[in-house]
Amino acid sequence: MSKGKYYITTAIAYTSKKPHIGNSYEIVLTDAIARFKRLQGYDVFFCTGTDEHGQKIEEQAKAEGITPKQHVDKIAGEIKDICDNLNTTYDHFIRTTDDYHENAVQKIFKKLYEQGDIYKSSYEGHYCVPCESFFTESQLKDGKCPDCGSEVKLAKEEAYFLKLSKYQKQLEEHIENNPDFIYPESRKKEMLNNFIKPGLQDLCVSRTSFKWGIPVTFDDKHVIYVWIDALSNYITALGYDPDGSTEKYNKYWPADVHIVGKDIIRFHTIYWPIMLMALGEPLPKQVYGHPWLLFGTDKMSKSKGNVIYADELTARFGVDAVRYYLLSEMPHATDGSISYETIIERYNSDLANTLGNLVNRTVAMINKYFGGTLTNNTTCDEIDTSFKEDILSALPVMEKAFDDFRIADAVEAVIGSAKRSNKYIDETAPWALAKDEANKDRLSTVLYNLVEAIRIIAVELTPFMPDTAKAILTQINCTADTYDSILSFGHAPLCNKVGEATPLFNRIDAAVMLSEIEKEIKEKAVAAQNAAEIAGVAKIGIEDFAKVDLRVAEIVNCEPVKKAKKLLKLTVFDGNSNRTVASGIAKWYKPDELIGKKIILVSNLKPAVLCGIESQGMILAADCSEDDVKVIFVDGIPAGAKVR
Questions:
Q1: CB–CB of 9/255 below 8 Å?
Q2: Are 368 and 328 in contact (CB under 8 A)?
Q3: Dihedral over Cα of 611, 615, 618, 619: its sign
Q4: Taking Cα atoms as reference points, which of 571, 550, 558, 565 lies closest to residue 614?
Q5: Using N-to-C axis directions, what is the helix angle for 319-329 and 310-317, rounded to 10°?
Q6: In terms of Cα–Cα distance, which of 477, 481, 509 is closest to 494?
Q7: What does DSSP say about strands 257-261 and 13-14: parallel, antiparallel, or unpaired?
Q8: Which helix (H) or strand (E) holds 493?
Q9: In a 3-state reduction of DSSP, which class is residue 609?
């Protein structure tokens, strides 16, 4: 029987570029909570999606030579692929370009205008394009955006404003009367003391300086600005409509929790509640502002070269191992850290040594001593009672940890059970019991207790490592996987034949893997440098450009480089002789597609050794978008022709 509804959301991801692993942490965190609530018996609705309007996207699309819709379609597809790749169980993926969302937002804007909560005026201030925010002179930090550090520009335009000041007192009272509304406590104090109590300024909610947005129905010069557009997704996804909402909205709203990054908690605990107050709708029960995941001690940034993507990690370590690291390594209220060294360390210690070893040797002993089938679990020593109590004690810890959003503590409780089970093996010494036939019933009971502990651990792992949980239950041949089945000890059936002992996680040779990763990073750096040189990032005079010798060359042979998946080894004829060029285009071209093609060669570039290949030049290619490179072909021009 259902325990009731539970509506949980992530913040919707901005479609400016492919998100890195720090951005992806949020979807995994939210998915773990949603899975645990489903396990407990709640009727869960889990919503995520993409924020797709704004000046930044309009400018990016223009630079790429495509429409804004083409740009957001591509990035939204990548974001959805990442959610799927990380095995997240969202029930709805909303895009703010969806027709139903745009229609509802237009109605929301009009309703707020007609009842006097939105009014027209003009705005003059310092505008940050990446943050899509205006700032006063006093709010700037060293003359730049206080949030992201970007350059700002003075802007003045006509705009509509939402009356935040009208609802300030009501918002303060709500926060004070609902102490868990903003969580954790440090975020609540920050919002009250730094933003609300000093006095709320009315909020700009429309723009006229760009067109990529939802039009204001009664004033077509204006598009609806990000706040009303993006924040409304939490209710439009359920079918909210000012003229009459759906049954789904009436069932699931208000949200039980919005999971958002600490950098956008202000929008979700000030702007969003006031919008709902103005609409006369209930407020979400809670907003949890989670910390950031840093690379070492730095925030991830392409300019710093420290960006890690989810698909790269899952390809190397597996989906469940990545989920495990993200959920076990992030603190409750302070920033977490990720590095390849710590991932490997966690993988080997927790997954291979502790969890994997427990399952592997238990199943192996059952097969060795009982032909795979246990028939007795009737003996009981004091050590067994203590062991069972320890295993069952993990679930209450998990429940409290999930309630407090201390997900790393929940993970630790489960791994603690695996460690306790390994200790139980050492305490009972099954290999010693097996030496005497008189101990057969005792040995069977010990191994049964281990199988039952492993079953409970597998069910408890479901929110964090769903595929691993299934693999464990398959290996011990057990289907008892409900929440009720882990409230007590003894639900694993006797006489079930276990499967073969198959390693869940093979140990990683840290030195070998780190060497491979370092090599790939260097190759990326070389490729980036080459791309920068081709693009002409630094301004040069005509004399400098004249030093570059560009020649048409024909690709006469092409083959992959075994040691580097991203490199192709090209043999090109430059009009006089053949030369070798290593090019990082393997992701976009197959060797057979290139043979016979004419390309433009930087022929007087100093040779460089890449993965053991001396590259004697560089070919010209274009970055068409975030992850799309096209070689510039010049078929029909003879090899050796000078390009100028």
A1: yes
A2: no
A3: negative
A4: 571
A5: 110
A6: 477
A7: unpaired
A8: none
A9: strand
628, β-bridge pairs: 625
User: CA-to-CA distance for 65 and 630, rounded, in angstroms?
Assistant: 14
Q: Environment class of residue 366 by beta-carbon count within 10 Å: exposed (0-12), middle (13-18) or buried (19+)?
A: buried
Place of tokens 């039952």: 452
Question: What distance in Å separates the CA atoms of residue 299 and residue 314, rounded to the nearest whole number?
Answer: 21
> Given this model, what pLDDT does residue 510 score?
94
Sequence-separated (6 or more) residues with CB below 8 Å from residue 317: 325, 343, 347
The answer to whether 341 touches 488, Cβ cutoff 8 Å, is no
Burial class from Cβ neighbours inside 10 Å (0-12, 13-18, 19+) for residue 114 reads exposed
Res 539: pLDDT: 56
pTM: 0.80
CA angle 294, 298, 304 (to 5 degrees): 115
Q: Judging by beta carbons within 10 Å of its beta carbon (0-12, 13-18, 19+), is residue 642 exposed, middle or buried?
A: exposed
DSSP 338: E
- Distance of alpha carbon 547 from alpha carbon 539, whole angstroms: 14
* 272: its two tokens: 């969003």
> What secondary structure does DSSP assign to 515-572, as a single string?
HHHHHHHHHHHHHHHHHHHHHT-S---HHHHHT--EEEEEEEEEEEETTEEEEEEEEE
| Chain segment 608-627, per-residue pLDDT in tens | 877 778 889 999 988 775 56
Residue 95 has pLDDT above 90, yes or no: yes
- Report whether the peptide linkage leading into residue 184 is cis, meaning its omega lies within 30 degrees of zero: yes
Backbone angles phi, psi at 406, to 5 degrees: -100, 70
pLDDT score at 303: 46
Mean pLDDT over the full length of the chain: 91
Q: What is the Cα Rg of the chain in Å?
A: 30
Q: Distance from CA of residue 407 to its chain's centroid?
A: 16
Quote the CA–CA distance of 358 and 349 in Å, as a whole number: 12
Q: Transcribe 359-417 into DSSP letters.
A: HHHHHHHHHHHHTTB--------HHHHHHHHHHHTHHHHHHHHHHTT-HHHHHHHHHHH
Round to whole Å and give the CA distance between 626 and 8: 31
Measuring CA to CA, which residue among 118, 100, 98, 95 is closest to residue 225? 118
Burial class (CB in 10 A: 0-12, 13-18, 19+), 463: buried
**Digit-coded pLDDT (tens) for 44-84:** 999 999 999 999 999 999 988 999 999 999 999 999 999 99
CA dihedral 216→218→222→225, nearest 10 degrees, is -30
How far apart are the C-alpha atoms of 192 and 173, rounded to whole Å?
11
Token pair belonging to 617: 């030049």
Give CA angle at 579 (575, 584), nearest 5°: 115
Strands 608-610 and 613-615: antiparallel
Nearest to 487 by CA among 516, 519, 511, 455: 455
Q: Write out the two tokens for 471.
A: 């693999």
* Best CA proximity match to 317, nearest among 342, 292, 354: 342
Residue type, 147: D
Among residues 367, 387, 276, 289, the alpha carbon closest in space to that of 330 is found at 289
